[in-house]
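Notes taken during the Thursday session

The instructor put the following on the board and asked us to keep it in front of us for the whole hour. The protein is Secreted protein. We were told not to look anything up and to reason only from what is written here. First, the residues (441 in total):
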Amino acid sequence: MSVRDGARLRSRRGAAAAVVEDALMTRAGHWRDQAFSTPGRLAAIGLVLVLLVLAAGAATGLAVGARDTRIDTLRGSADPLSNAAQDLYSSLSIADASASTAFLAGGLQPRVMVDRYDSAVAAASASLATATMGVGDDDSAARALLASLSTGLPVYTGLIATAGANNRAGNPVGVNYLGEASHLMQTQLLPDAQRLYSEQSATVVDLEHRNASVDWVPLLVIVLALVLLVTFQFYLARRSNRRLNFGLVLATVAVALMFAWTLVAGLVSASFSQRAASESTGPLAAITTARISAQQARTDETRNLLARGDDAEIPQTFHERMDTVGRALEKDGGSTESDALHNLDAWRSAHESMRSHLARGDYAGAVEVAIGTDDASSGSQFVTLDAKLEDRIGELRAHGQHLVDDSDRATAFLVVGSGILAGVAALAIILGLRPRLSEYQ
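Then, after some discussion, the predicted structure tokens were revealed:
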């Protein structure tokens, strides 16, 4: 190819490139003119509104879904696990109090006391198994506590069995084994159970508090969509000299209904969750603490009697725990408050009578007051008080579950409803703008 032919070829290629570039610029200019034209602006605004109302529906669905997940976690794992920890904590205390009380009878222990101890140990084992199955693999702290409890409980029951065998044989060393078992319970098992219960209760409280607040993100998105819809209708009315656009009015009504439904359902659901925290979870923790304190006070009472009143620290801890029970009952103010406080006062009086017998050297009389079956005995008042506290715990837990169910029902149909309303609004926007866009064709 000659130099002249090469120059011609380059010239032709340059001309072709120029033609393509001119065509592209012309097309880009056409698109730009279309985008900035009145129908282009209307279409762009309509697209934004459609996407915004769909986003409002999606945001509402995601928020409700997150709330439902928290409620499912609360009902399915957190609350049952917390209840298992509470049962474990309480059962261990009952076992310790029952074992100490049974020793006061001397020799062959009363069947009712042995049965109470055996039932408490069985309940503790069952609660321990339930808690172990319910705790997640990632909760290393809870698993460590459960491992410690699983190891310590057989040791405790073994010491109690040895103490009982020696007691039946008339060997004084049985009291020493009982003291060692009670020391293990007070210094390892009960503190571990208390920490487990506190951790699981904290999870319940956290879930309830998170559900007790309204999620404002979907509401803000809905408000934004509503404001833009109204503003756009004013703009369109000025451009087209028409007052109302049926499609946009329908879309506005649908978004307004979505806002009202989301707001009311969110407030109602949050209100029920707040009530669950204040009317159930809070009092439940106080009454649980009161019941444990009462059981430990009973253990102190029987241990003090077994020690013939020689341990000066036990009476002090007994009165501190009784005061804890009294404060919890007064703070709760539930249906059992007055009766439970009456039993608590009667127990205090019986305890003072027991102390008087012990001070006079009447050990048999002191034992009778401690384990007797009449109303004047501290044992009868303790059993009655413990039963009332157990019933109150059941009432509070059932009330909390009912409120959580109400919280869930408040948003039951909101996901579907918000999706339908968002779809109706989006379709109405499209149908409302279609006639206006066709006017420019």
